[in-house]
Design brief:
Shape: globular
Number of strands: 12
Low-confidence stretches: none
Radius of gyration: 16 Å
Order of helices and strands: EHEHHEHEEEEEEEHEEH
Number of helices: 6
Length: 194
């Protein structure tokens, strides 16, 4: 994500192979962007595979919620069981908590602590531009899985109701997978929350 200054954030780089790494690097170069932060909404394998690549390439420290550290460390242990080669992620250098502000260029994202999909899931809310990056907390017509280690269905539903559904209906939601949606649509139509 970037703004008019061309400073950008890299959030949940899921780059698995050289093609995906090249694609990310090419996009950053073609758009003349300057990466200034590396953020994880949570630390399931599909969201952290590119952490080392991005951290090394752009000399960025990793930022996440401290409750995700055990999940981040576990990736290198379970990845081989799925036949996945995974470069070890760097350790977190900055811990993000509820209410923190992530600043870049002329922009600012507010951190919302939204556990349930994982113990330390966080979302990034841009109040001015009226959008939220929800990671795997909320999807169009769905929610994040809670059957993975550290997941809890009741906690996830509470996070969505108390942190996301209190936002204005016209807030756009950019999830970690699938199409964009908005808060109002999900309030009315999400089968897990209606």
């Amino acid at each position: 994500m970037s703004d008019e200054t061309k400073e950008c954030l890299v959030i949940d780089p899921g780059c698995y192979d050289s093609f995906e790494k090249d694609e990310l690097e090419r996009f950053i170069t073609d758009q003349n962007l300057k990466p200034v932060k590396l953020l994880n909404t949570h630390c399931h394998i599909d969201h952290v595979l590119g952490n080392k690549f991005v951290a090394d390439k752009y000399k960025l420290p990793l930022e996440l919620n401290s409750k995700e550290v055990p999940l981040l460390k576990a990736v290198k242990e379970y990845a081989p069981q799925y036949g996945i080669y995974c470069e070890p992620s760097p350790e977190a250098a900055v811990f993000l908590n509820e209410g923190d502000r992530v600043r870049f260029g002329n922009s600012e994202l507010k951190v919302l602590f939204t556990p349930g999909h994982s113990p330390g899931s966080i979302c990034f809310f841009n109040e001015k531009e009226k959008f939220i990056i929800s990671g795997d907390v909320l999807f169009q017509m769905s929610i994040g899985r809670t059957d993975l280690p550290g997941g809890d269905y009741d906690t996830l539903i509470k996070s969505i109701r108390e942190k996301l559904f209190v936002l204005d209906d016209d807030i756009k939601v950019y999830p970690g997978h699938g199409p964009m949606t908005n808060i109002g649509f999900e309030k009315k139509n999400n089968p897990f929350l209606s």
